Amino acid sequence: MRPMIVLEEKGFSGYGNKQISFSDKGHKSEDIMKLNPRGQVPTFKHKDVVLNESKGICQYLESQFKKQGTQLIPDDPDKQALVLQRMYETDNIFDKAARNIFYYTRSTKKENIDEEHLQKKRQDLATELEYWEKYLTGDYLVGESFTMADVYLFTNLCFLVRGSLSLDSRPNLKRYYEKLSQRPSVQASWPPHYKESSPTQMFALV
User: Fold this and answer.
1) Is CB count within 10 Å lower at the N or C end of the chain?
2) Residue 179: per-residue pLDDT
3) Among 17-26, 72-81, 98-107, 194-203, which is the least confidently predicted range?
4) What are the boundaries of each domain within the chain?
């Protein structure tokens, strides 16, 4: 989703893309494996350049088309530093949500799940989200403009909300999520299965 938002922000609506199904092992298809021997997505090709990591794709697009569409990494050194800080700081959300909770519950038999251990993991994620609740003092994460930091944070929030995370007790995150959900680049990039199937209950208790 991240690279698609960046493509839209840079004015590349109508770019070629292909949705794949993990359950059908679409990520291991011949077309994907030719571009990415790891069989991972996203896989991005621009002329002779092939990139297979979403962060790399996003920064490549910003670097190559900096003056086109929305400038996502500002020139001002102070703002640029904060945007970069927040971009990579969002890894903490993913670590505490995906690696600590998602993979733990998916890879552990239900009868073997340590509820006390799982509750500690949930509390770690809740504590992490308090940082972001405090960071959001305006409409966007850094300054008054949509930046790459917003691309990174919003897509992490999408994953959490998809897992039934409630934002009701986090007013700044809720306002931010609802505002950015209506942004044209986000609407154009929204994964179809987010609309077509029910969310999981992965983060319902956080």
Assistant:
1) N
2) 97
3) 17-26
4) 2-64, 77-196
Q: What's the token pair of residue 65? A: 């088309």
What token pair was written down for 61?
């697009």
Percent helix, strand and coil across the chain, each to the nearest 5: 60, 5, 40
This prediction has a pTM of 0.87
Q: Which helix (H) or strand (E) holds 146?
A: none
Confidence at 24, pLDDT banded by 50, 70, 90: low
In SS3 terms, 28-43 reads as HCHHHHHHCCCCCCCC
Class (C level, CATH) for 2-64: alpha beta
Angle at 196 between CA 190 and CA 198, to 5 degrees: 105
How far is 141 from 139, CA to CA, in rounded Å?
A: 7
Q: Quick one: pLDDT at residue 199?
A: 63
